[in-house]
Amino acid sequence: MFSNHNPIFSEPECRFKGLITPQNISTFPTCSRVCAYLIFTKDTEVTEDQLTVALKNMKILIGGLMIFGVPFTHTKFLEPLEEIECDDVGISIVNNAELTDLGMINLKSIDCPGFRFSGNELLTGLSMPSLKNMSYNESVLIETLIVSALPKFCLNPNEARAFAGVRYPSFVQVLVPFCEPKYNEKLCKTPAEGCVELFGKVYIGPDFNMNLMKNIEAIHGNLIINGTSLTNFDDFENLQCIVSLEFTKTTLRIENNLNLVNPWFPKVQKIYSNGKEEIVFNKNAPELLLDPSLCYDYQLLSSEMKEDVPKFNGETCGKKMDWI
Asked: What fold characterizes domain 187-322?
């Protein structure tokens, strides 16, 4: 399961094999980097307090993590974790009926092929406020599922950006809403100087001041560019992702921009939507229809590389040659 190229293999004292039990918990490594596949289930016999002591030094977990049907009310013993690096397994947090707090408040990075969260009846959030990104080996499909039947469950913007914004190839389903954000000088409801992230609908029309978009890195909502005189999207010089968790709205709609000849965002890596129409181009400069690669390039940015995304004047990539 573990890569022999990982430098931790030269430190056998930092490896742990098997399940954590009352008999072996005292032998859990005290290293800051630990190589282990941590599994917690209904049969786990150690307590939260025992695990808090045993795992207190672990900042980087190399291996994998499964939390399945645990009797715990919290997993705050994972609070020291800052990074999780996986080989051929991922992270699974499933069917934990008593769990009310994951407590992974210091987790910044996930480098794993999968993340599955479902059936956690009392959890109202992931409790991962520090999370910045999820990634993995470029040649491997990343699979992510986050679903909850609890109406109060929500994701904060950085969690949604990390999970929904993973690179292609990926299969991502984030089927929960955003939490109501706490706005500040960097997270804004409307474009303004100093904003780095925008929450909600961003409408760019003919008189919009494009200088306000130069520092924007993420849009948590949808972007509409309509009726402008833009010839390119160079002013979106720092935009990296557009993430919409709504089921009814188009994430990116670009229409009636008659001078637009280069509609490519310099740094965007992902456009995610739960809606049927994810990316729509309509009635822009006719030159856009002459470049077949543009449609396929945008398809690679979409949630699951869907065949009907994007749409140019109502047509998909598969039918594009018919209307050039």
From this structure: 24 nucleotide stem-loop, u2 snrnp hairpin iv. U2 a'; Chain A (3.80.20)
